[in-house]
Amino acid sequence: MSSKTILVTGGTGYIGSHTIIELLNAGYDVINVDNGINSNPSESIKRLEEITGKKLKKNYSLDLGVESELRKVFQENSDIVTVIHFAALKAVGESVHKPLEYYTNNVAGTLVLLRVMKEFNVKNFVFSSSATVYGVVDDCPESGMTEDRSINANSPYGTTKVFVEYILRDLKVAQPDWNIAILRYFNPVGAHSSGRIGEDPKGIPNNLVPYILQVMTGRREFLSIYGDDYETKDGTGIRDYIHVVDLAKGHIAAAKFLEGKNGVCEAINLGTGRGMTVFDVLNSLKKVSGKEIPHKVMPRRAGDVTIYLADVSKAKKLLGWSAELTLDEMCADAWNWARLNPEGLSSS
Ligand code: NAD
Ligand code: WQD
Protein backbone atom coordinates (compact mmCIF):
# COMPACT_ATOMS: atom_id res chain seq x y z
CA MET A 1 0.00 0.00 0.00
CA SER A 2 1.22 3.45 -0.88
CA SER A 3 0.88 6.39 1.52
CA LYS A 4 1.58 9.09 -1.03
CA THR A 5 -0.43 12.28 -1.01
CA ILE A 6 -2.41 13.22 -4.11
CA LEU A 7 -4.13 16.55 -4.61
CA VAL A 8 -7.37 16.21 -6.52
CA THR A 9 -9.14 19.24 -8.00
CA GLY A 10 -12.87 18.91 -8.64
CA GLY A 11 -12.97 15.79 -6.48
CA THR A 12 -16.58 16.16 -5.38
CA GLY A 13 -17.84 16.07 -8.97
CA TYR A 14 -18.89 12.99 -10.92
CA ILE A 15 -15.60 11.49 -12.06
CA GLY A 16 -13.53 13.02 -9.24
CA SER A 17 -15.62 11.45 -6.47
CA HIS A 18 -15.36 7.98 -8.01
CA THR A 19 -11.62 8.48 -8.42
CA ILE A 20 -11.18 9.54 -4.80
CA ILE A 21 -12.82 6.27 -3.74
CA GLU A 22 -10.31 4.31 -5.79
CA LEU A 23 -7.41 6.43 -4.50
CA LEU A 24 -8.45 5.89 -0.88
CA ASN A 25 -8.91 2.18 -1.54
CA ALA A 26 -5.43 2.07 -3.05
CA GLY A 27 -3.98 3.59 0.13
CA TYR A 28 -3.33 7.14 -1.07
CA ASP A 29 -3.83 10.17 1.14
CA VAL A 30 -6.16 12.54 -0.68
CA ILE A 31 -6.51 16.32 -0.51
CA ASN A 32 -9.43 17.82 -2.41
CA VAL A 33 -9.96 21.31 -3.79
CA ASP A 34 -13.44 22.11 -5.10
CA ASN A 35 -15.55 25.27 -5.12
CA GLY A 36 -18.83 23.35 -5.46
CA ILE A 37 -19.82 25.16 -8.65
CA ASN A 38 -21.18 21.89 -10.03
CA SER A 39 -21.32 19.58 -7.02
CA ASN A 40 -22.62 19.11 -3.52
CA PRO A 41 -19.27 18.86 -1.71
CA SER A 42 -20.41 18.03 1.82
CA GLU A 43 -22.79 15.28 0.73
CA SER A 44 -20.34 13.88 -1.78
CA ILE A 45 -17.52 13.71 0.78
CA LYS A 46 -19.79 12.22 3.43
CA ARG A 47 -20.80 9.46 1.04
CA LEU A 48 -17.39 8.64 -0.37
CA GLU A 49 -15.97 8.44 3.15
CA GLU A 50 -18.86 6.14 4.12
CA ILE A 51 -18.18 3.89 1.11
CA THR A 52 -14.45 3.58 1.76
CA GLY A 53 -14.45 3.78 5.57
CA LYS A 54 -11.59 6.27 5.12
CA LYS A 55 -11.27 10.02 5.49
CA LEU A 56 -9.93 12.63 3.13
CA LYS A 57 -6.72 14.07 4.46
CA LYS A 58 -8.06 17.56 3.82
CA ASN A 59 -10.78 19.32 1.90
CA TYR A 60 -10.55 22.92 0.69
CA SER A 61 -13.61 24.81 -0.51
CA LEU A 62 -11.99 27.17 -2.95
CA ASP A 63 -11.77 28.25 -6.54
CA LEU A 64 -8.47 27.01 -7.88
CA GLY A 65 -8.17 30.17 -9.93
CA VAL A 66 -7.50 32.20 -6.78
CA GLU A 67 -3.73 31.89 -6.73
CA SER A 68 -3.11 33.18 -3.21
CA GLU A 69 -5.57 30.62 -1.77
CA LEU A 70 -4.22 27.77 -3.85
CA ARG A 71 -0.69 28.63 -2.77
CA LYS A 72 -1.76 28.12 0.84
CA VAL A 73 -2.88 24.58 0.01
CA PHE A 74 0.60 23.73 -1.25
CA GLN A 75 2.25 25.59 1.66
CA GLU A 76 0.24 23.57 4.17
CA ASN A 77 0.85 20.26 2.39
CA SER A 78 4.47 19.90 1.36
CA ASP A 79 3.99 16.15 0.78
CA ILE A 80 1.85 16.41 -2.40
CA VAL A 81 3.47 14.25 -5.06
CA THR A 82 0.84 14.26 -7.78
CA VAL A 83 -2.06 16.45 -8.86
CA ILE A 84 -5.11 14.99 -10.61
CA HIS A 85 -6.94 17.90 -12.20
CA PHE A 86 -10.66 17.35 -12.83
CA ALA A 87 -11.98 20.83 -11.97
CA ALA A 88 -13.54 22.39 -15.05
CA LEU A 89 -16.83 23.53 -16.49
CA LYS A 90 -17.99 20.80 -18.87
CA ALA A 91 -21.23 21.62 -20.69
CA VAL A 92 -20.56 21.83 -24.41
CA GLY A 93 -23.74 23.80 -25.23
CA GLU A 94 -23.35 26.24 -22.35
CA SER A 95 -19.76 26.94 -23.40
CA VAL A 96 -21.03 28.37 -26.71
CA HIS A 97 -22.97 31.03 -24.77
CA LYS A 98 -20.36 31.57 -22.05
CA PRO A 99 -16.98 31.27 -23.74
CA LEU A 100 -15.26 33.74 -21.41
CA GLU A 101 -16.37 31.80 -18.33
CA TYR A 102 -15.12 28.57 -19.90
CA TYR A 103 -11.73 29.92 -20.97
CA THR A 104 -11.26 31.62 -17.60
CA ASN A 105 -12.23 28.63 -15.50
CA ASN A 106 -10.72 25.85 -17.58
CA VAL A 107 -7.66 27.49 -19.11
CA ALA A 108 -6.73 30.34 -16.76
CA GLY A 109 -7.62 28.14 -13.75
CA THR A 110 -5.30 25.40 -15.01
CA LEU A 111 -2.51 27.94 -15.57
CA VAL A 112 -2.81 29.08 -11.95
CA LEU A 113 -2.60 25.48 -10.81
CA LEU A 114 0.45 24.74 -12.96
CA ARG A 115 2.23 27.91 -11.80
CA VAL A 116 1.69 27.02 -8.17
CA MET A 117 2.80 23.42 -8.77
CA LYS A 118 5.99 24.72 -10.39
CA GLU A 119 6.61 27.09 -7.48
CA PHE A 120 6.30 24.18 -5.03
CA ASN A 121 8.20 21.73 -7.21
CA VAL A 122 5.32 19.28 -7.67
CA LYS A 123 5.89 17.63 -11.04
CA ASN A 124 3.36 14.86 -11.58
CA PHE A 125 0.17 15.96 -13.31
CA VAL A 126 -2.84 14.01 -14.52
CA PHE A 127 -5.19 16.05 -16.71
CA SER A 128 -8.84 15.36 -17.54
CA SER A 129 -8.98 15.87 -21.26
CA SER A 130 -11.72 14.63 -23.51
CA ALA A 131 -12.28 12.72 -26.71
CA THR A 132 -13.87 15.93 -27.90
CA VAL A 133 -10.34 17.12 -28.83
CA TYR A 134 -10.55 14.87 -31.91
CA GLY A 135 -13.18 17.28 -33.25
CA VAL A 136 -15.89 16.39 -35.75
CA VAL A 137 -14.64 13.09 -37.08
CA ASP A 138 -15.99 11.48 -40.24
CA ASP A 139 -13.36 8.77 -40.54
CA CYS A 140 -13.29 6.99 -37.20
CA PRO A 141 -12.02 3.48 -37.89
CA GLU A 142 -13.69 0.44 -36.32
CA SER A 143 -10.55 -0.06 -34.25
CA GLY A 144 -11.04 3.45 -32.80
CA MET A 145 -9.04 6.67 -32.92
CA THR A 146 -5.41 6.66 -31.90
CA GLU A 147 -3.81 9.42 -29.87
CA ASP A 148 -1.57 10.62 -32.69
CA ARG A 149 -4.52 12.16 -34.57
CA SER A 150 -4.47 15.92 -34.91
CA ILE A 151 -6.53 17.74 -32.32
CA ASN A 152 -9.02 20.56 -32.81
CA ALA A 153 -12.39 21.12 -31.26
CA ASN A 154 -15.75 22.47 -32.33
CA SER A 155 -16.91 24.17 -29.13
CA PRO A 156 -15.36 26.59 -26.65
CA TYR A 157 -15.43 23.76 -24.07
CA GLY A 158 -13.51 21.47 -26.43
CA THR A 159 -11.08 24.24 -27.29
CA THR A 160 -10.27 24.71 -23.59
CA LYS A 161 -9.14 21.07 -23.55
CA VAL A 162 -7.10 21.54 -26.73
CA PHE A 163 -5.46 24.69 -25.31
CA VAL A 164 -4.53 22.99 -22.05
CA GLU A 165 -3.10 20.04 -23.95
CA TYR A 166 -0.86 22.46 -25.90
CA ILE A 167 0.13 24.27 -22.71
CA LEU A 168 1.12 20.95 -21.13
CA ARG A 169 3.23 19.97 -24.13
CA ASP A 170 5.05 23.31 -24.04
CA LEU A 171 5.52 23.03 -20.30
CA LYS A 172 7.08 19.60 -20.68
CA VAL A 173 9.62 21.05 -23.13
CA ALA A 174 10.59 23.77 -20.65
CA GLN A 175 10.43 21.46 -17.61
CA PRO A 176 11.75 18.15 -18.94
CA ASP A 177 11.50 16.41 -15.58
CA TRP A 178 7.72 16.87 -15.31
CA ASN A 179 5.53 13.79 -15.69
CA ILE A 180 2.23 14.48 -17.41
CA ALA A 181 -0.64 12.18 -18.35
CA ILE A 182 -3.31 13.71 -20.56
CA LEU A 183 -6.29 11.39 -20.26
CA ARG A 184 -8.84 11.66 -23.06
CA TYR A 185 -12.10 10.27 -21.73
CA PHE A 186 -14.71 8.95 -24.11
CA ASN A 187 -18.29 8.72 -22.74
CA PRO A 188 -18.28 8.13 -18.96
CA VAL A 189 -21.51 6.62 -17.61
CA GLY A 190 -22.65 4.54 -14.64
CA ALA A 191 -22.15 4.99 -10.94
CA HIS A 192 -20.59 3.36 -7.91
CA SER A 193 -22.20 -0.04 -7.26
CA SER A 194 -23.29 1.09 -3.78
CA GLY A 195 -25.77 3.48 -5.41
CA ARG A 196 -24.54 6.20 -3.05
CA ILE A 197 -22.69 8.35 -5.58
CA GLY A 198 -23.25 8.99 -9.25
CA GLU A 199 -23.73 11.69 -11.84
CA ASP A 200 -25.80 14.60 -10.57
CA PRO A 201 -26.37 17.01 -13.44
CA LYS A 202 -27.83 20.41 -12.69
CA GLY A 203 -30.63 21.47 -15.06
CA ILE A 204 -31.60 19.56 -18.17
CA PRO A 205 -29.01 16.87 -18.94
CA ASN A 206 -27.28 17.06 -22.31
CA ASN A 207 -25.84 13.58 -22.26
CA LEU A 208 -27.70 10.44 -23.20
CA VAL A 209 -27.64 8.32 -20.05
CA PRO A 210 -28.45 11.08 -17.54
CA TYR A 211 -31.32 12.14 -19.77
CA ILE A 212 -32.74 8.62 -20.02
CA LEU A 213 -32.45 8.20 -16.24
CA GLN A 214 -34.57 11.32 -15.74
CA VAL A 215 -37.17 9.90 -18.11
CA MET A 216 -37.12 6.66 -16.12
CA THR A 217 -37.61 8.50 -12.82
CA GLY A 218 -40.46 10.57 -14.23
CA ARG A 219 -38.66 13.90 -14.35
CA ARG A 220 -38.80 14.07 -18.18
CA GLU A 221 -41.52 12.85 -20.48
CA PHE A 222 -39.54 11.04 -23.16
CA LEU A 223 -36.10 10.65 -24.69
CA SER A 224 -35.46 12.40 -27.98
CA ILE A 225 -33.31 10.15 -30.13
CA TYR A 226 -31.23 12.45 -32.25
CA GLY A 227 -31.44 10.80 -35.65
CA ASP A 228 -32.01 7.21 -36.77
CA ASP A 229 -30.61 7.69 -40.25
CA TYR A 230 -26.92 7.21 -39.51
CA GLU A 231 -25.07 4.41 -41.26
CA THR A 232 -25.08 2.06 -38.30
CA LYS A 233 -26.91 -1.22 -37.54
CA ASP A 234 -30.01 0.58 -36.19
CA GLY A 235 -29.46 4.07 -37.61
CA THR A 236 -28.39 5.72 -34.34
CA GLY A 237 -24.99 7.10 -33.39
CA ILE A 238 -22.24 4.89 -31.98
CA ARG A 239 -20.20 5.93 -28.94
CA ASP A 240 -17.65 4.42 -26.61
CA TYR A 241 -19.39 4.37 -23.20
CA ILE A 242 -17.12 3.61 -20.27
CA HIS A 243 -18.10 2.77 -16.69
CA VAL A 244 -17.03 5.61 -14.40
CA VAL A 245 -15.45 3.11 -11.99
CA ASP A 246 -13.25 1.73 -14.77
CA LEU A 247 -12.40 5.32 -15.68
CA ALA A 248 -11.55 6.10 -12.05
CA LYS A 249 -9.23 3.10 -11.94
CA GLY A 250 -7.51 4.44 -15.05
CA HIS A 251 -6.44 7.44 -12.95
CA ILE A 252 -4.81 5.24 -10.33
CA ALA A 253 -2.94 3.47 -13.12
CA ALA A 254 -1.89 6.86 -14.55
CA ALA A 255 -0.72 8.17 -11.17
CA LYS A 256 1.36 5.03 -10.62
CA PHE A 257 2.77 5.29 -14.15
CA LEU A 258 3.92 8.88 -13.50
CA GLU A 259 5.42 8.15 -10.08
CA GLY A 260 8.16 6.03 -11.58
CA LYS A 261 9.14 8.43 -14.38
CA ASN A 262 11.68 11.17 -14.78
CA GLY A 263 10.13 13.18 -17.58
CA VAL A 264 7.18 12.02 -19.66
CA CYS A 265 4.17 13.60 -21.37
CA GLU A 266 1.64 11.24 -22.91
CA ALA A 267 -1.90 11.64 -24.20
CA ILE A 268 -3.88 8.47 -23.52
CA ASN A 269 -7.42 7.48 -24.52
CA LEU A 270 -9.62 6.04 -21.79
CA GLY A 271 -12.50 4.12 -23.29
CA THR A 272 -13.52 0.52 -23.85
CA GLY A 273 -12.87 0.42 -27.58
CA ARG A 274 -16.38 -1.03 -28.00
CA GLY A 275 -19.08 0.91 -29.85
CA MET A 276 -22.69 1.04 -28.69
CA THR A 277 -25.67 2.68 -30.40
CA VAL A 278 -28.32 4.80 -28.71
CA PHE A 279 -30.71 1.83 -28.97
CA ASP A 280 -28.11 -0.48 -27.38
CA VAL A 281 -28.04 1.86 -24.37
CA LEU A 282 -31.82 2.25 -24.28
CA ASN A 283 -32.38 -1.52 -24.51
CA SER A 284 -29.81 -2.24 -21.83
CA LEU A 285 -31.46 0.23 -19.45
CA LYS A 286 -34.83 -1.35 -20.24
CA LYS A 287 -33.41 -4.80 -19.52
CA VAL A 288 -31.76 -3.95 -16.19
CA SER A 289 -34.77 -1.98 -14.91
CA GLY A 290 -37.68 -3.88 -16.41
CA LYS A 291 -39.15 -0.49 -17.35
CA GLU A 292 -40.51 0.79 -20.62
CA ILE A 293 -38.72 4.00 -21.66
CA PRO A 294 -40.76 6.42 -23.77
CA HIS A 295 -38.76 7.77 -26.71
CA LYS A 296 -39.26 9.58 -30.01
CA VAL A 297 -36.98 9.83 -32.98
CA MET A 298 -36.09 13.44 -33.75
CA PRO A 299 -33.80 15.11 -36.28
CA ARG A 300 -30.04 14.79 -35.87
CA ARG A 301 -28.35 17.04 -33.30
CA ALA A 302 -25.96 19.60 -34.80
CA GLY A 303 -22.32 18.61 -34.43
CA ASP A 304 -22.99 14.90 -33.79
CA VAL A 305 -21.01 12.30 -35.71
CA THR A 306 -21.86 8.74 -36.67
CA ILE A 307 -19.18 6.93 -34.75
CA TYR A 308 -16.69 7.98 -32.08
CA LEU A 309 -14.55 5.23 -30.59
CA ALA A 310 -11.26 4.94 -28.73
CA ASP A 311 -8.32 2.85 -29.75
CA VAL A 312 -7.35 1.69 -26.27
CA SER A 313 -4.09 -0.09 -27.00
CA LYS A 314 -1.91 2.75 -25.66
CA ALA A 315 -3.62 2.71 -22.26
CA LYS A 316 -3.09 -1.01 -22.02
CA LYS A 317 0.54 -0.79 -23.07
CA LEU A 318 1.60 2.21 -20.96
CA LEU A 319 -0.70 1.98 -17.95
CA GLY A 320 -1.43 -1.75 -17.88
CA TRP A 321 -5.06 -0.68 -17.63
CA SER A 322 -8.13 -1.62 -19.57
CA ALA A 323 -11.84 -1.21 -18.93
CA GLU A 324 -13.57 -4.33 -17.60
CA LEU A 325 -17.22 -3.53 -17.06
CA THR A 326 -19.93 -4.19 -19.67
CA LEU A 327 -22.70 -1.93 -20.95
CA ASP A 328 -25.25 -3.86 -18.85
CA GLU A 329 -23.11 -3.24 -15.75
CA MET A 330 -22.88 0.48 -16.61
CA CYS A 331 -26.65 0.63 -17.03
CA ALA A 332 -27.46 -1.45 -13.94
CA ASP A 333 -25.28 0.80 -11.76
CA ALA A 334 -26.61 3.97 -13.39
CA TRP A 335 -30.20 2.83 -12.82
CA ASN A 336 -29.48 1.76 -9.23
CA TRP A 337 -28.08 5.24 -8.53
CA ALA A 338 -31.00 7.03 -10.19
CA ARG A 339 -33.61 4.82 -8.51
CA LEU A 340 -32.14 5.43 -5.07
CA ASN A 341 -31.43 9.13 -5.63
CA PRO A 342 -34.06 10.51 -8.00
CA GLU A 343 -33.09 14.06 -7.03
CA GLY A 344 -29.34 13.40 -7.17
CA LEU A 345 -27.19 14.18 -4.15
CA SER A 346 -29.85 16.41 -2.69
CA SER A 347 -31.92 13.28 -1.89
CA SER A 348 -30.34 11.87 1.27
P1 NAD B 1 -18.25 17.64 -12.72
O1 NAD B 1 -18.80 18.96 -13.09
O2 NAD B 1 -19.14 16.64 -12.09
O3 NAD B 1 -16.99 17.84 -11.75
C1 NAD B 1 -16.13 18.95 -11.85
C2 NAD B 1 -15.89 19.48 -10.46
O4 NAD B 1 -15.00 20.59 -10.52
C3 NAD B 1 -17.17 19.96 -9.77
O5 NAD B 1 -17.26 19.39 -8.48
C4 NAD B 1 -16.99 21.49 -9.71
O6 NAD B 1 -17.64 22.03 -8.57
C5 NAD B 1 -15.48 21.63 -9.67
N1 NAD B 1 -14.94 22.89 -10.21
C6 NAD B 1 -15.17 23.44 -11.43
N2 NAD B 1 -14.47 24.57 -11.55
C7 NAD B 1 -13.77 24.75 -10.41
C8 NAD B 1 -12.85 25.73 -9.95
N3 NAD B 1 -12.52 26.77 -10.70
N4 NAD B 1 -12.30 25.58 -8.72
C9 NAD B 1 -12.62 24.51 -7.95
N5 NAD B 1 -13.49 23.56 -8.33
C10 NAD B 1 -14.05 23.67 -9.55
O7 NAD B 1 -17.56 17.04 -14.02
P2 NAD B 1 -17.03 15.56 -14.30
O8 NAD B 1 -17.99 14.91 -15.22
O9 NAD B 1 -16.64 14.90 -13.05
O10 NAD B 1 -15.75 15.93 -15.16
C11 NAD B 1 -14.47 16.00 -14.59
C12 NAD B 1 -13.48 16.39 -15.66
O11 NAD B 1 -13.53 15.45 -16.73
C13 NAD B 1 -13.73 17.76 -16.30
O12 NAD B 1 -12.49 18.37 -16.53
C14 NAD B 1 -14.42 17.41 -17.60
O13 NAD B 1 -14.20 18.41 -18.57
C15 NAD B 1 -13.72 16.12 -17.96
N6 NAD B 1 -14.51 15.26 -18.85
C16 NAD B 1 -15.77 14.88 -18.48
C17 NAD B 1 -16.53 14.07 -19.31
C18 NAD B 1 -17.93 13.66 -18.95
O14 NAD B 1 -18.68 13.26 -19.84
N7 NAD B 1 -18.33 13.70 -17.69
C19 NAD B 1 -15.98 13.63 -20.52
C20 NAD B 1 -14.69 14.03 -20.86
C21 NAD B 1 -13.97 14.84 -20.02
C1 WQD C 1 -24.30 10.24 -27.08
C2 WQD C 1 -25.21 9.76 -28.20
C3 WQD C 1 -26.36 11.53 -29.35
C4 WQD C 1 -28.74 12.80 -25.89
C5 WQD C 1 -20.48 14.54 -25.16
C6 WQD C 1 -19.55 15.71 -25.34
C7 WQD C 1 -18.12 15.28 -25.15
C8 WQD C 1 -17.89 14.54 -23.84
C9 WQD C 1 -18.90 13.46 -23.64
C10 WQD C 1 -16.99 16.04 -22.15
C11 WQD C 1 -25.16 10.62 -29.46
C12 WQD C 1 -27.35 10.64 -28.61
C13 WQD C 1 -27.87 12.13 -26.72
C14 WQD C 1 -30.13 12.69 -26.15
C15 WQD C 1 -29.67 11.26 -28.02
N1 WQD C 1 -17.99 15.40 -22.70
N2 WQD C 1 -28.32 11.37 -27.77
N3 WQD C 1 -30.53 11.93 -27.21
O1 WQD C 1 -22.14 13.82 -27.79
O2 WQD C 1 -20.83 11.67 -27.63
O3 WQD C 1 -20.25 13.56 -26.14
O4 WQD C 1 -20.24 13.97 -23.85
O5 WQD C 1 -15.84 16.12 -22.49
O6 WQD C 1 -17.35 16.43 -25.22
O7 WQD C 1 -19.74 16.25 -26.63
O8 WQD C 1 -22.37 12.32 -25.75
O9 WQD C 1 -24.22 11.57 -24.33
O10 WQD C 1 -24.45 13.76 -25.57
O11 WQD C 1 -24.52 11.63 -26.85
O12 WQD C 1 -30.07 10.59 -28.95
O13 WQD C 1 -30.97 13.29 -25.44
O14 WQD C 1 -26.58 9.86 -27.75
O15 WQD C 1 -26.89 11.94 -30.57
O16 WQD C 1 -25.30 9.75 -30.54
P1 WQD C 1 -21.43 12.86 -26.96
P2 WQD C 1 -23.94 12.38 -25.55
Major sheet characteristics: 7 strands, parallel
Distance between the termini: 33 Å
What would you report as the Rg, rounded to the nearest angstrom?
19 Å
Q: Could you say how many structural domains there are in total?
A: 1
What structural class do helix, strand and pairing data support? Answer: alpha/beta
Strand content: 15-25%
What is the count of β-strands?
Answer: 14
Provide the residue-averaged pLDDT. Answer: 96
The CATH class turns out to be Alpha Beta
Predict the CATH topology.
Rossmann fold
Which sequence of strands runs across the widest sheet? Answer: 3-2-1-4-5-6-11
What letter string, H or E per element, gives the SSE order?
EHEHEHEHHEHEEHEEEHEEHEEHH
- The CATH architecture classification is 3-Layer(aba) Sandwich
- Give me the number of helical elements: 11
**Hetero groups:** nicotinamide-adenine-dinucleotide, UDP-4-deoxy-4-formamido-beta-L-arabinopyranose
Relative helix content: 25-40%
Are there runs of 5+ residues with pLDDT below 50, and where?
Answer: none
Tell me the overall shape: globular
CATH superfamily: NAD(P)-binding Rossmann-like Domain
Enzyme class: isomerase
Pfam families: GDP_Man_Dehyd
GO biological process, one term: galactose metabolic process
Organism: Planoprotostelium fungivorum
